[in-house]
Amino acid sequence: MRPIRALVVTSLLLGPPAGLHQPAPAAGSGAAGTPAATGVIIGTVVAAGLGAPLGYAVVSIDAIGRERFTDGSGRFILLDVPAGRMTLRAKHIGYTPADSLVDVRAGDTVRVRIELAKAAVQLPAVTSVGNCAKPGAPRREVDPGLFVLFDQLKQNAERSRLLTRSYPFEYTVLRIKARQSSRDPTAPPDTVSVDTLEGNSQRDWRYKPGNMVVMQHDGSGIGEVLILPELGDFADKAFIDNHCFGYGGIEHLEGLPLVRIDFAPADKIKEPDIAGSVYLDSATFQIRRAELALTKPSSWLRQTLTSVAVQTHYTELAPGIPMLSSYASVAGLSDEQQRQGWARSMTTQSILDVQWLKGKP
Known about the structure:
With 361 residues, this protein is mainly beta.
């Protein structure tokens, strides 16, 4: 059996998925060196009815792969937009996305104002995702309440993903490792190590069924590491298409009423995967925490561990922009390791510092 070099390996903070949008062409250049036919879009995103600016909304033009945050006052500028008619979409957590058709003419500036209505959610019936025969995103015509909740979860994931694309950063975390005795379950855990780690927001790994355990070289040899999906993966089509989602009700955690959205891997997946719950603020739909658990560990994996559970907590970097602040993992150890005196291993990581490489939102 090849050793597992780490029980849980994640970049802690979310990195961009593979296949980033292509950068906009440089101003004044086009095919064969001819001037590009481009224009400019200047706009503001506001709350419908009130006219209050929605800072840090996300505006995008899918047709040209352009996406960005508004500033703190809801304003944005898109330069070098190809001439033609296209759809401009605006999103903000807690609001219903809205589209606006714009006609861009070469050399012109188009001014737009997009109003977003508060998301109206009629909470659905509590559902179980224990059996996942038909994975995929909830459908509006089948369960409109769950559809809206899932859209808010996906917006959290998209915003976190856009953060790492637009504002790369480096971070330092405090890591504490501990072990729980199998001989005396009432004894406090023994601290194994306390150290700090440094990393950055870039992340190459992408979710796909059967890709939870990968080979990795860490300087001391090649071993297998278990990688758990992060918030950004909830916006990834492969993750959505291979999981079922359900409404778990309202739970009061740490004094806050939170909406619980459950998820589980498709029944057809036989390799290690992930299930769990994500908790959104019931008033703002901002993500507050998530609980993840390993499913279907392979036979060789069970020779080292029997379970992995991770709890994550999120903070707001700016209004509506989520950032992971800490996580704690607990791994149940194999019978062999329990005979050696250890029942569980525990790891906590907390952010100590963030350094922005190209400015902060």
